[in-house]
Amino acid sequence: MTDRTILISGAGIAGTALAYWLRRHGFAPTVVERAPAVREGGYKVDIRGAALEVVRRMGVLDEIRRERTDVRRGSVVDAAGRRVASMDGDSFGGRSDEDAEILRGDLNRILYDLTKDDAEYLFDTSIAAVAETAEGVSVTFDTGETRAFDLVVGADGLHSVTRRLAFGPEEDYIRDLGYYVSIFSVPNHLGLDREELTYVSPGRTTLMYSTAKDSGAKAMFLFAGAPQEYDRRDRARQQSILAGAYAEDAWEVPRLLSEMSAAPDFYFDTLSQVHMDRWSKGRVVLLGDAGYCASPASGQGTSLALVGAYVLAGELAAAGGGHEAGFDRYEKEMRHYTDENQKLGPQNVKHMVLGSRWLIRFQMTMLRVMPHMPGKDRVIAKILEPIHKAANAIALKDY
User: Fold this and answer.
1) What is the residue-wise DSSP string for 230-270?
2) Which UniProt keywords apply (predicted)?
3) CATH architecture for segment(s) 73-92+178-270+359-377
């Protein structure tokens, strides 16, 4: 087999899933991660459609279901905290009976445990430079060490260092959807029991939810906003932007914001997508958010990562490890699937963040009457049809 040694930048969902499939096909993967360990916690994510089949083939679907969030109820609340509309957790989250919802950190741990004994992991390390040679790729790490690999895979997220080094500035590929997202852990001061609460004001949405096996809760903020200059590592500036956007909001918003300075897992970024004509250049290829981020609004980032890892490893194996044919076939197999799922982001966010009080009143009315409508299941299925169509927009090969 040619092109056997493969460096994966990023030990998130995409990177750890790829490490598994590469080992299954006889490759030798090394995973480099700038964090000191696999990241814990994080927001809840969904596994749908083709991605369910991928984790089934990995043998971890039952474990994922045991670690499910088990959110049983979703409600929209008014400024006084009264539940003005409620439905079951799956309908509220846009899931069918087969879909699996799990905390991102729990899924990452499952995949890491599956691969830690078979793949080399380098934590507290990141790529500093990449240079192609006659034999492969020479990679210099931020530790100063230089190593040679046959191929390099960038699975390092929206702000991929690998993409910047190999393809150029991220501004050439990232498309800002005009919204921001923030999420962090908070005390469960409302005593929520596997429930999600949503408070909506013009241009801003706030969520608080609790999940099974977690005594705390998560707060999530989605808001419309013009681009602002800030350093992605300047947490104080990010928190200032968030607090300013929600300065006039009611419900539990002030208390939730007061907890962000103490949160160990504060996250803040634009809602953005990555669009590229090609995901590979020479011996470097991109996977997951690094190459085709659909944004959290799509609800499909995790599924794209899982399916992409399966297809990339499979096509490299089918090509005998030859990267040119393998990369070409990976793009051919994945392009329609990624396109369909990326369409969901801009569509979904318009229903998640409402621009006027009139739209809010209209949506609240619809949510209140929906549980009592004749044929409500057909109505809900019609609403959820686009995401489930996109989730199944690929036929998985047997590699």
Assistant:
1) --TT-HHHHHHHHHHHTTT--TTHHHHHHTGGG-TT-EEEE
2) Monooxygenase, Oxidoreductase
3) 2-Layer Sandwich (3.30)
